User: Fold Cytochrome P450 from Streptomyces telluris.
Amino acid sequence: MPERSDAPHRLDPTGAGQHAANERLRARGPAVPVVLPGEVAAFAVTRHEELKAFLAHPDVAKNARHFTALREGGIPAGWPLATFATVEGMTTADGDDHRRLRGLVTQVFTPRRIEGLRPRVEELTARLLHTLGEAAQDRGTGTSGVVDLREHFALPLPMAVICELLGVDTDLQGSLHRLSSLIVSTTTTPERALAANREMADVLGLVVARRRAAPGDDLTSALLAAQAEDGDRLTGRELVGTLLLMVIAGHETTLNLIANAVRALCTHPEQLAPVRAGKSGWGDVVEETLRYDSPVSFFPFRYPTRDLEVGDTVIPRGVPVLASYTAAGRDERAYGPDAARFDVTRRPAARHLSFGHGPHYCLGAQLARLEATTALEALFDRYPGLALAAPDHDLPRHPSFVGNSTEVLPVRLHP
Assistant:
């Protein structure tokens, strides 16, 4: 049954058909009522200019104490999106608390330190490319060279980098990715959601215990040192919450970015020509991918602290609001009538909002760009005939309307 034009839009937990749905949502207005899993009422901001203003609005908060339904007991137990609202860390903090927590992490995520990671990112990329062909052979594909690029390249690169930054030992990395995927998924059952969050807290608690016993040059050790200097600066829950957010944001989004860029280039092979001719750079590919097919679709949550007008719509105080980066990225009002076209020569290239805007702008933006540009350039240099091994529209979606990519990415390494 088609959706009534005035009815709240029910977000598909599987993440299917997001771009088609986004087109309808943008046509309805800059802010649209939506229904989340668990029959939770919310709004989504879908247009570029209105989203940019909303993200930086002084009457919009991130702390869940402003979430009316949660505060009044109206959210079901095991709600799959609860972690985004209740985790204690800088993404759910406002004002002085946000500045305190962000300041601690900023000490590690300095531009100089991120740039200093370039040789390590290049080394990891080269190692993964060396084993990519072997992975195809190991899967019994003979000389066809078909391999799941998501599993063997797009995932292990950012996972290794963020875990090294956080001081996470290699034996814990598989568990952290598995649990991150469950937490980001919007189809997770209440029982699995609760279990995943408990297990994630246990694993991160082990990370903290190991770094407390053997400190190193990593973010976890730095946060523990700050905690020891002044116990009021960082609580135990804030420490685990910060690590949780860094693990998820530090690899899930970059994984999706690399995968979505490969998909876009393989379905628009003509876009490789200006890159190979030097008319556009790999940085342009990354920025256009961020706009055209953002690695994050509907990001939860923000809460108006008063009834707030967004365009001609009033969002009531205390209602959770999602930032729809995939919808805003194809807004014709911002990008012109060809907004739905992938074009690496588009200017200006970095106008998108995929890293957010305002005080909560993504701290890892520079690192994500470094990893993605390095990975894509090396990948297409090594395998210039790289092609999808299955039609893009047939690839199963990652079951989420938060993360935006596919579950697998089978590619043929050689034409």
Observations:
- The two ends are 43 Å apart (CA to CA).
- The first strand starts at residue 9 and ends at 10.
